[in-house]
Amino acid sequence: MDYDATDRFSEAEEAEIQRIVAADATGDERAIEAALRPKSLDEVIGQQRVREQLGLVLEAARARGRAPDHVLLSGPPGLGKTTLAMIIAAEMGSPLRLTSGPAITHAGDLAAIISGLNEGDVLFVDEIHRMSRAAEEMLYMAMEDFRVDVIIGKGPGATAIPLEIPPFTLVGATTRAGLLPGPLRDRFGFTAHLEFYEPEDLDQIVHRSAGLLDVHLTAEGSAEIAGRSRGTPRIANRLLRRVRDYAQVRADGTVTRDVAMSALELYEVDTLGLDRLDRGVIDVLCRRFGGGPVGLSTLAVAVGEERETVEEVAEPFLVRNGFLARTPRGRIATPAAWAHLGLVPPAPGVTDATLFED
Ligand SMILES: Nc1ncnc2c1ncn2[C@@H]1O[C@H](COP(=O)(O)OP(=O)(O)OP(=O)(O)O)[C@@H](O)[C@H]1O
Ligand SMILES: [Mg+2]
User: Fold this and answer.
1) Which of 44, 95, 132, 149 would give a disulfide with 160, using CB separation of 3.0 to 4.6 Å?
2) Residue 156: helix, strand or coil by DSSP?
3) For the ranges 7-16, 195-204, 272-281, which has the lowest average pLDDT?
4) Residues 247-257: pLDDT tens digits?
5) Residue 194 CA: which ligand is closest?
6) At the topology level of CATH, where does 33-193 sit?
7) Which ligand is nearest the CA of 30, by number?
8) Residue 123: strand, helix, or coil
9) What is the CATH architecture assignment of 197-267?
10) d(Cα 36, Cα 185) in Å, to the nearest integer?
11) What does pTM read for this prediction?
12) Is 309 a catalytic residue?
C-alpha cells in the first residue's frame, strides 16, 4: 500500500463531520472557491449597500491618488469577506498582502509584515479578532500614525526603534465584530457589514457559478438550489457542485428542478436548507417535548448529539430563521417549526397542567 491508512481514515472522518450546509470552507474547497470569486466590484452580486459604499470609498481614494481608509469587513462565514478584500486591492491596482489573526502570535510577527509594506499596499488580516493583544497595540499605531516600534534586544537592555511606514490600507475581516476591542474598531474608516443574501441574489450567483463551471442548468434548477442555500453564497456554490455530480451520473447532465430536488433530497438538504441535524432538533422538540420549553442538555441527549453541537452547529441557523427560540426556561419550537414539519402545534393554553385539572 502506498498510502497511510491513518490518513485515509481521518479524511473520511473529516468528510463526515463537514456538513454539506456548513458555512465554513474545508481546505480543498478554498482552492475551488478561488475560481468562483468575483474579481471586481461590478461582478459582485447582491450586497447593494456595501457595494455602493465601498465603491465610493475606493473611487474617492483613486481620485485623490491616496491609499483608501482602513476597511473592516464583518459578517458570518461564506458571505464574501475574503472576496471583497481581494477586490479592494484589485480595484486600487495594489498588491495584496495576506495574513490572519491566528498567524500573528507575537508583535514581532506583525512588525515583520508591516515593515515590509510599500506605499499603497493592501494588507488583509483575516480573522482579525484572533490576533494577540500585543500585536493589536502595534496595529493601532501602524493604522493611525503609520509607524511601528521595532524592539531590538531583550529584557532591560531592549530598545524600541521607531520605524516609519508608507501609507497602506488595512483590510480586516471578522465573523465576530463584537470581539474586537473598541480602539481597534474605531481606527477603521469604513466598516462593511455583510448580510445574508436574498434568494434572488443567490439565484444569480448560482447562474454565474454554473457558467464558470460549465454546468447546464435551468432557471427552476437554479432557484431550487438558491432557496436551500441558507442565504450563503459558499453553500450555494457547494450545493451546485453536488447537484452537478448527480446530474452527470443519474441524469443527462442538465440541472433541472427535478434533478436538483432529487440530488438535494439524497444529501438531506430540505426545501429551506435544513439538514438532518437541524430537522432532528426541531423534530424532537415538537414531537417529543410538545414544543418545549426544554433544557439544552435534555434536547441534546434526545437528538443523540453533544450539547455543543446542538448549540453551536444547529441552533444559530434555527434561531435566525425563527424555528427555535432560546428562553430562560429552555428551548421552544416556534409555529414556523411546527409548520415546517407539517405538524399542528397544540392550542395555546392547553398544557399538560390544564388538561389534568378537575
Ligand atoms: N457577492 C458574491 N457574488 C458572487 N459570489 C460570491 C459573493 N460573495 C461570496 N461569493 C462566493 O462565495 C465563496 C465564499 O466567499 P468568501 O471566501 O469571500 O467568504 P468569507 O466571508 O471570506 O468567508 P470566511 O468567513 O469563511 O472567510 C467564494 O467562492 C465566492 O466566490
Ligand atoms: Mg474569508
Assistant:
1) 149
2) helix
3) 7-16
4) 999 999 999 99
5) 1
6) Rossmann fold (3.40.50)
7) 1
8) strand
9) Orthogonal Bundle (1.10)
10) 30
11) 0.88
12) no
